[in-house]
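The material for today's practical consists of a large collection of protein records. Backbone structure tokens are a discrete shorthand for how the chain folds in space. An example says more than a description, so a record of this kind follows:
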Amino acid sequence: MKIFIIASICAMAALLCGNPAFSAGLPPTGQTKCYNNTAAIDCPTSGQEFYGQDANYAKTSTTPRFEVIANGLAVKDNLTKLTWEIKTSENLAGTYSISAGTAQAYVDGLANYAEIPVWRLPTVDELSSIVNLGANTPAIHSEFAPVNTNYSYWTGTTYKGEYGDTSAWTVNFNIGEVGYNNKTGAIYVLAVSGIPTKEPEERFTSDNSGTVTDNKTGLIWQKTPSATKMTWKDALAYCESLTPGGWRLPNREELRSILSYDKFPAIDIKLFNAVSGKYWSSTTNNKTPTQAWNVDFTGNFYTDGIVSASGKTTLYYVWAVRDAPLDPPAYSRGDINHDTKVDLADAIDGLRILDGISATVYTDTEVNGDGKIGYEEVIYALQVTAGLRTQ
């Protein structure tokens, strides 16, 4: 007899999570409303259905993020320190190609525009940072008007899938999709000025408690996401119920932030024990509330890394995140009996649990993200005991 247990401590989750400002340094998504599976609702509280979504953890700032400068020619982002052009009626409809060189020629031609000497194509992270997921058509902050929504905008980040380096990432400001186009295509350009954010020498740090810290954003991720697909509603509840408390479903930009756009597949598969597939974010599609945003981690040549919205009853995987280190510290994976070491006693306790014999169950030490103690945990403990695996 197998025991399937996920201990629910939602109240503790709410206390430990708090409401982080700008999600550990990432720009906010802009979503301030809460939703059920079909429509906007009053934001739920801890323990209620649909708690844990984007707006539950959003925190507004009293300091304006965007500032229109240079007599209306540019927008300064006080959070990222980047400056963006404001489109004029003369160049709003212009489309440009990367492979034909017209996109680069356009940004080069902006030299000294708004008294700023150098402009460039934004990276995919930069262009996505100005998406406003609390709005749609356009899904961008009002300071950037006017903006087109019928085509996408180029980034300077090459898409590593498909057929080599023939495509680049794009952002569409209709609802905020992040996809890609062939570089031969002609679409819009929104130029940026400023120094790109420098990557830390070591982007991710893994530990023995089953977590991975992103040294760029400060967010702490499950090393092993859920191996079970869930609806959006169940994904929210699952993250809130994880032990110890403090876990939550990441918003769209947090989930997108762990993509590594310089490689294919766009995730460090040696670092994360992630199942190939799509993963839910906590952010609803503002234009179509029956949908929520997800990120593609399938490793498929044609879809890897794409950010899109799907019906909330669709079954996708779940990758929990937290803002603060585990307190108290988590026990190591495979430490079934919580004695701070992984040895034969853990394997024995795992077998007792599988046989239905009374035993204390600590699901925070499971190894494959399914929220239970099973054969995988027993085998893991035996491998560590035999010296066949290091923790």
In short: Residues 331-391 form a domain with the Type 1 dockerin domain fold (CATH 1.10.1330.10). Confidence is low (pLDDT under 50) at residues 1-24. The first strand starts at residue 34 and ends at 35. The first helix runs from residue 10 to 17.
